[in-house]
Each structure stands twice: as C-alpha cells, then as structure tokens.
Amino acid sequence: MNPYAIRTSSLRRDFGPIRAVDDVSLEIAPGAVFGFLGPNGAGKTTTIRLLLGLLEPSGGSAEVLGFDTRSQADAIRQRSGALLEYNGLYERLTAEDNLEFYGRVWRMTKAERGARIQELLTDMGLWERRKEPVSAWSRGMKQKLAVARTLLHRPALIFLDEPTAGLDPVAAAALREDLATLAAREGVTIFLTTHNLAEAEKLCQRIGVINKGRLLATGTLDELRLHNDAPRLEVTGSGFNEALLARLRSRPEVCEVALAGEKLTIGIQPGFPSAPLVRLLVESGAAVEEVHKGIASLEELFLTLVEEESETPGISKMPGV
Amino acid sequence: MLTDILTVAIKEIRELPYLRRDKSRTNLFSLLIFIGVFGIFLPLQSGEGWVTSPFTLLYWAWLPFMLVGTTMVDAFAGERERHTLETLLASRLSDRAILFGKILAGVVYGLGMTLVCILVGLLTINVAFGRAGLLLFPAGIALGILAVVLLISTLASGLGVLVSLRAASVRQAQQTFTIAYFVLFIPLMILPMLPPMVMQPIIQFLMRADFKTIGIWAGMIVALLDAVLILAAMARFKRDRLILD
After folding, report:
1. Is any Cβ of chain B less than 8 angstroms from the Cβ of A237?
2. Looking at this predicted complex, what is its ipTM?
3. What is the pTM (predicted TM-score) of this model?
C-alpha cells in the first residue's frame, strides 16, 4: 500500500508572470482529513486542479494515490471524487438523475447505483426530494447533494474545495456534521480547502496553511501551536497602567503585552509558568477579576502565519514538512 | 469508451430543450408548437409536393441544422456558464468520451426530432391530400432525407460543439454559430432572388441535372466537412484550456 495518499515535491504553477503555487511540498497519509487553509487567492483551488491532473505543473512533481499527476491523471481521477469551487450539479436534472449520471460515469451497475444513491440521499436527508429538479433546491441542499455525488463511487480520496462557502451557519453546521460522519464511516482521505477555520479545526487531523502560493506550515493543530505560537494569559480587571505594562514587557518570559479596555493579553514564552506574572499584577495594584490561560486558536495561528508571511516575504515556517 | 460516450449522450439529451424531464408545461407547449409548425403547418402549405419534390431535401437539411446547431452551442459554453464543466472534467471520463458523447447527443436529437416531424407530416399530408391513395416519399427521396438529416445533424453538432469549445459564453457561441449559418445558407436564400438572366442558366442546369450524382457529391462533401469539424473539435479539446478560458 502506498504510504501517502498525496505527495508533492516543490510543486509549482505559473500563470504568466503570476506564481499561483510556489514550491509546495506536502505529504498526506491515507485516511487522513487534511485541511488546506488560506485566504482568497492563496492558491488552494490551483493546488487541487494540479493534484487532479486538470492543470500541468510548471515545475516540481505530485503523486496522488501513487500516480503521477502529469502522466497518470486518468488513474487519479478514476479513484478520486471532487467537489470543486462550484457544486457542479445539473440544475435542469433531478437530484436522482444527477447521481444516476455520475454513477454511470463511474461504471457502477444499476443495482449498485440504486442502493448507493438511496444510502447517501437518506443519510443526507434528501431521499424524499430526489425526484425534484435541483434548481428548486436551497444552496445547502445542493451542497449536500454535491457531497453525496463526490462520495457516490466510494473513492479513495476526495477533494472538497470550500464545501460550506456561502451557506448559512445552520446549513454549514449540518453539512460539516454530515461530512464528519461520512468521512469516519467511509475511511476516505479528504483534502479540504477552506477559509473557515472553525471548520478545519472540527474536521481536520492535519492542516496546511498556504498564502500567496507558498505553504507556510503543515502539521497537526498541536504541532502548529507548538511551533507557531506561545501560550497566552488573558486577564480581565482594572488598574493596568503604563508603568505596569512596562514592567511586564521587561520580563524575559513575556513576548507580547496588549491592552484592550479592561482586557490585558500577555503572551508567554513556552515553558514558563504564569503564576509569577499574576502575582506581579496583584502586587502592582491591579484589580484582577478573572484570569484565563489559553492556547492560540487556529484562527490566531492562521492570522499569525499569514501576517508573518506578508511582513517577511520569502520566509516560511514549515514544521512537519 | 462506447459506454462512456452513451452515458454523456444520454445526460445531454435529458438536458436538451423539449426533452427535459422537468415536467414543465412550457417545455411540453414548446414541443407541441415545434411539431405543429414543422409536422402540420408547413406540410399543409406545401401540399403533395412535400413528399414528391426533390427540393424537399433542402428543407430537411435546414431543419436539423438549425435545431441541432442552436442547441449544441450550449454544449461546453453552457456547462462553463452553469459551472458544471470542471466537475465533469474532474471525473474519470476521457476527453473523447465527453466530446463524442456531446456530438452524438446532437446527432440523435436532430435525427429524432426531424423523424418525428416527418412522421407527423406524412400523417398530415395523407389526411389532407391522400384521397387517391397513400402518399409516401419515393424510395430515393426517403433514403436521401435520411442521409441528409444524418449528415447535416452531424455537421451542425460538430460545428456547434466546436464553436462552443471556443466561446467564452453561450451568447458568444450563438453569435458565432449564426454567422456560420449565414455563410452556409445565404447562397440558398439568395438563389430565388437572382435576376432572370442569371437564374435562367441555373434553372436549365438543374432541369438537366442528375440529382442522384449531385446528391452523392453533396453528401460526400458534407461527410468530409463533418470529419474536419470533429477533428478540429478533438484538437481544440484540452482540459486545462477549458478550465482556464
């Protein structure tokens, strides 16, 4: 068995003078749910197109399910499913006809198609409405149907390009729930691009952050936290004057101090205790009402990485690559 | 490969005007109007000549060309506009299965719709003018009609798909196809308007002409055009270009 579902080496794609994907090296194990995060225009969709063999790389190489994207793209598409930027549904056809068509495309027998369509549409809560033209459906229902289509032929790998984009919070949550359940049940490798960080945090075991075509970091969420951010102390209270802030900044374990109203945030170097800092605050006369020691959320990590890349172009941090 | 071509063709046909399974009354009404005009109204206007005149072949060349061409310009440009093309290209289907499936759908559509009009037309003609006996196409004309409809449907389908591959939008594809239509059919439209001194020798030539030989030569030219258009469409079909255009 191939140790990697996806493996890229210095993958690059240029569109004229624009480098959309720049030296991206990735390794994704089979069965993993990999989140590919990045702002709009970061290169996420182009990466998916490269991995599906829909675009030729300008440089580097990529193997998907053990097949080279340049010379064996047909074999990759044979074994993959894709929900791309748009849901790709034929709106003039019924939901059932959409799945029937793609079932035929993947050479499923009539019995297999029937059983699988019923299974997926029932799981998604769409079975009763299968005879309706898709044009009459809500966006959330269409996305669910598109996910069902992606999983129809039991692919080894699926690409989901921002599957919850444009959905209302309720529909997005429902789709995430379905995705999590189906991914666990089907044991499929998922390559998920999103800029919804909560989604990535909920669904993905490993995460890659891309900006301006460059891969800034990959790893599990914990690995990213370890490499990219320090624990932080959030203190609510009053009496945080300039002298106190200066004393905090002078401490060797403090890497950042920020005051917003009554909320003081202190970034601490990893490995240092926070109790001496709380003591310092109290002894300095601050009225401390609440102290919360937390770790950076994925959103904070993401923003840090993207901001660092913007400030120092060409510098990338790549733990786990 | 053949199974894949049929799969694409069936999907295309299910999406085509008049044949969609969306149960809309508009769709059914449009279908009835179409058959009413070409299967009832025009045969009644033409009378018995509708089945006996060799010029009827021109009529059966025009109908599938318009019907198929105006529909097939949607083949790729429409999929691109409706954002379904990339998903189709990301499937396991080969380039040729997608391309030939779409062309086949056009041919089947043109052939099918024209044959329905012919059958309804024959019924109309016989009800209206068939008192002396059954009015049918002579064998040669019937064979000619079949060949014309098949070749012209393929021509229109190939041309429509090629135009659609190159166009950025359905509208642009329709405009390009309309130009191609005029280039091909303007000579036939202008013919009756020519002054008598020009028309006279043409009429005399046609009176003496061997329609069978002309028909065979015309058929071979159209078949050659069909092949050229299909080859051009194959050369134009590039996944990355279709995605990035």
Report:
1. no
2. 0.80
3. 0.79
